[in-house]
Design brief:
about 375 residues; mainly alpha; 19 helices
Length: about 375
C-alpha cells in the first residue's frame, strides 16, 4: 500500500540552521574583522591618517591638502575631498584620537542599517548579509565617507518628491565627493528640474563657502592633486579604466574607454528617466558613478547596497553574490585577474538584481519527505 503523505510540522531544519548561522556570522564575522584590523594598526585608518589631520588644519584656518611629494600622497592616505568633510569632522578633534576613531567607526557602521531602513528593506536577513559584504566591512574598518555617502543616496531616493530636501541632500552628496555628480543628471532625467537646479547651486555653495573659510587655500592645486593621485593609484584599483589598462598600455586610452562606457550608462539613465522609469534611472546613475571613477577602491562597491535594496527588498541571490568579492585585496592593489573577478561579481549582482532567483531549501526538504513517505 502507498502510505499517505503526512504534512510536516514545524520549521524546516535546514532553513533554521542557515538562518541561525547567518545571524551568528553577520555579527561575529564583522566584529572579528574590525578587531583584527585594529590589532594590525589599521583601525579607522582613513580617520586617523586623513580626516582628523585635515579637520585640525581647517580648524586652524590652514589647507588640509598635502603636497604632491608628501608621504601622505606617496603612500595613499592623503585627504582628497573638498573642505566640507573636514569641517563636518571638526568636532572629533575635541576627543582623544582613539575616542574619535571609535565614534567615527560606530557612526559609519550605523549607516548600513539606516540605509536599508530608508529603502524599505524589512527582511532582517538582508541586513545580516549586507554586514558581511567585503565593501561594507572595508568601509567600516577604515571609517571613510563611503557608507555615509550610500546613506545620502538612500535619502535622495526616499525624499525624491520633496524638492528642498532633495536639493540639500544632493548638494551635500556632490560637495562631499565630486564624482557623485550623476545624481544631478538623474534629477534632470526624471524632470525634477527645480531639484536639479537647486541641488547644483547647493553643491557649489557647500564647496565654496567652507573653502572660503580657509581663504581658498589649496584650491588652485586641487585638481592637479586629484589627477596625480588618480594617475598613480588608479591603475592598481578596481576601476574599469584599470581593467582596460591591464590590456592597453596607455592610461590615457584606458580613461577614454572608461569615459565612453560611463557616458553610455548615463545615456541609458537619461532615457530611462524620460520614459518614467524612475528606479531604473537612479540605479543606472549609481552604476554610472562607479563606471566613471578612475580610482575605484573596494569600499566604493558598497553603493550596490542601494541598487540591490531597490529591486530586492527581501532576501535573494543578489544579496549573496557580493560575498564573492572576498579574496580580492582591498582597498586596491589587485592583479588583472582579481579586477576581472571583482567586476564580474558586480555584473552578476546587477544581472540577478533584474532577474531574481530564490533558493527554496524548504520546498526541497518537503519534496524529499513526501517522496519518502510515498515510496514507503
Amino acid at each position: 500500500m502507498v502510505a499517505e503523505a503526512q504534512p510536516l510540522v514545524g520549521p524546516d531544519p535546514l532553513r533554521r540552521a542557515l538562518t541561525h548561522g547567518l545571524a551568528f556570522w553577520s555579527i561575529v564575522g564583522a566584529v572579528w574583522l574590525v578587531v583584527a584590523n585594529a590589532l594590525g594598526h589599521e583601525f579607522a585608518f582613513d580617520v586617523h591618517y586623513a580626516f582628523l589631520p585635515a579637520a585640525h588644519e581647517v580648524v586652524h584656518g590652514s589647507s588640509p591638502y598635502s603636497g604632491l611629494d608628501s608621504q601622505a600622497v606617496r603612500e595613499g592616505y592623503a585627504y582628497l575631498y573638498p573642505p566640507l568633510a573636514a569641517y563636518l569632522l571638526a568636532p572629533l578633534t575635541l576627543l582623544p584620537p582613539l575616542g574619535a576613531e571609535i565614534l567615527a567607526t560606530v557612526l559609519v557602521a550605523a549607516c548600513v542599517p539606516a540605509t536599508l531602513q530608508l529603502l524599505g528593506v524589512r527582511d532582517w536577513r538582508c541586513y545580516a548579509v549586507a554586514m558581511l559584504w567585503m565593501p561594507v566591512i572595508a568601509g567600516i574598518q577604515s571609517a571613510n565617507l563611503t557608507l555615509p555617502m550610500v546613506l545620502g543616496l538612500a535619502l535622495l531616493w526616499r525624499y525624491r518628491e520633496r524638492t528642498v530636501v532633495t536639493a540639500i541632500v544632493a548638494g551635500f552628496v556632490v560637495a562631499l565627493k565630486l564624482f557623485f555628480w550623476p545624481v544631478l543628471l538623474w534629477l534632470v532625467a526624471t524632470r525634477r528640474y527645480r531639484s536639479a537646479a537647486l541641488g547644483a547651486a547647493a553643491s557649489a555653495l557647500f564647496v565654496l563657502v567652507p573653502w572660503g573659510g580657509i581663504g581658498f587655500a589649496g584650491l588652485r592645486g586641487y585638481q592637479h592633486l586629484l589627477s596625480t593621485v588618480a594617475n598613480r593609484e588608479g591603475p592598481e584599483s578596481y576601476s574599469l579604466a584599470a581593467l582596460v589598462h591591464f590590456v592597453v598600455p596607455s592610461w590615457t586610452a584606458a580613461i577614454a574607454v572608461e569615459t565612453l562606457v560611463g557616458a553610455g550608462v548615463l545615456t541609458l539613465a537619461l532615457l530611462a528617466g524620460r520614459r518614467g522609469r524612475d528606479r531604473d534611472a537612479f540605479a543606472l546613475a549609481i552604476v554610472g558613478i562607479l563606471a566613471l571613477t578612475p580610482l575605484l577602491e573596494t569600499h566604493y562597491f558598497a553603493a550596490l547596497l542601494v541598487v540591490v535594496a531597490l529591486y530586492r527588498p527581501r532576501l535573494s541571490v543578489a544579496w549573496f553574490l557580493p560575498l564573492l568579492m572576498w579574496g580580492a585585496p582591498e582597498p586596491n592593489n589587485g592583479s588583472g585577474l582579481q579586477r576581472v573577478h571583482v567586476l564580474l561579481v558586480v555584473v552578476l549582482t546587477l544581472v540577478f538584481v533584474l532577474k531574481d532567483w530564490r533558493p527554496t531549501f524548504g520546498r526541497v526538504l518537503r519534496f524529499g519527505a513526501v517522496r519518502g513517505a510515498v515510496s514507503g
